[in-house]
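Case study 2.
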Amino acid sequence: MKTAQDIIIKPVITEDAMDRLHNNVYTFKVAKDANKIEIAKAVEELFDVKVASVNTMIVKGKEKRMGRFTGYRADWKKAIVTLDGEKTIEFFEGMY
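Prediction:
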C-alpha cells in the first residue's frame, strides 16, 4: 500500500503553474504508476482540501549531452489538480 507521500513527489513551480493558482489549480510531480483516484486521495489527505478533478500527463524526458555522449532524462508524470471550494493549499500561499 502506497502512502500519500509516496504518490505526491513534489510541487511543480513554473510560471504557468503559478498563474493557475488563482483558479485553485495546483500542479504536482507524482509517482508514475499512480492513477487519478489515488492522486486525489493523496492530495486530500496531505493538504486537507476537497479535490474537484485531476488531470494527468506523462512528460517525456529531455535529451541531454555530456560532451560527445547523449542521453535522456527520465520520463515523469504530472498531475494538475483542481480544488473544490474556497479552501487553498497553504504551501503555495506566498508564491504568487
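The chain has a mean pLDDT of 93.
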